[in-house]
Amino acid sequence: MDNLLWIAMAGAKENFNSLNVRTNNLANANTTGFKAEFENSRAMSVFGNAYPTRAFAMAEVPGYNFDGGAMQTTGRTLDIALQGDGFIAVRDTDGNEAYTRFGNLEIGSDGVLRTSTGLDVLDEDGNQIVLPAPLAEININNDGYITGKPAGADSTTVETYQRIKLVNPELRSVEKGYDGLFRSRDGAQLAQDQTVEVQSGMLEASNVNPVEELTSLIRIQRQYEMQTKMMQTAGELDDAQNRLLSYN
């Protein structure tokens, strides 16, 4: 009965991993620029010194849904949404370059342009974007250049500041971290892509489909119940086998 019990136990354990992926997607259904993760389960043979007669289940994240989310008009000049593919370069909490679609930006008291979650937005050279203060007006152009009018300046005065770093890598060359940011799989920094465009005054909504995620949660829960019933059956069969052997 150990085969049956092992497979059922492994399947139930991996159901929890699948559940984590789906619940994380559902929890981020309202997160700006969030890209849903896929989850997949498959059988894996156990290799060792003997013939691989044992197998177990393995849940994995084979990829991400890079479809664009719905565009939401905010009218706020520091809100930007990417048109088509691409990412905004930011500095993560470890000081490394990472990439996101989260375009809700703000200017700190020190003049540094950051996301509303506190991550520095980078310019095309990989540096902080520091803007003079105070600014009477600020705009982000389609190509990522930041322009504005200093407070007290003539109405015709428009100054150009730094350019936001926008990248457009091969999607299979990036991976998503636990913090929701994307990074190059080989750890390299990506180059500025001149074709990526942004739209100011808009934000990209999450591309999570709540109905699909809820349906998947129900499916995973049923799979877990089936695995626990198999474990119970394995125990009952083992008890019956022991009773038969005791009669001899």
TrEMBL record:
Q: Which residues form the Flagellar hook protein FlgE/F/G-like D1 domain?
A: 81-147
Q: Which of UniProt's keywords are assigned here? A: Bacterial flagellum, Cell projection, Cilium, Flagellum
Q: Which InterPro entries match?
A: Flag_bb_rod_N, Flagellar_FlgE/F/G, Flg_bb/hook_C_dom, FlgE/F/G-like, LlgE_F_G-like_D1
Query: Is Lipid biosynthesis among the key words of this record?
Result: no
UniProt xrefs under Pfam families:
Flg_bb_rod (PF00460), Flg_bbr_C (PF06429), LlgE_F_G_D1 (PF22692)
**Residue ranges annotated for the Flagellar basal body rod protein N-terminal domain, each copy included:** 8-35
Localization: Bacterial flagellum basal body
Annotated ranges, domain Flagellar basal-body/hook protein C-terminal? 199-244
A single GO BP term for this record reads: bacterial-type flagellum-dependent swarming motility
Q: How does this protein assemble? A: The basal body constitutes a major portion of the flagellar organelle and consists of five rings (E,L,P,S, and M) mounted on a central rod. The rod consists of about 26 subunits of FlgG in the distal portion, and FlgB, FlgC and FlgF are thought to build up the proximal portion of the rod with about 6 subunits each.
* NCBIfam families hit by this protein: FlgEFG_subfam, PRK12640.1
Q: What is this protein called?
A: Flagellar basal-body rod protein FlgF
Species of provenance: Candidatus Anaerobiospirillum pullistercoris
The uppermost taxa in this organism's lineage are: Bacteria, Pseudomonadati, Pseudomonadota, Gammaproteobacteria, Aeromonadales
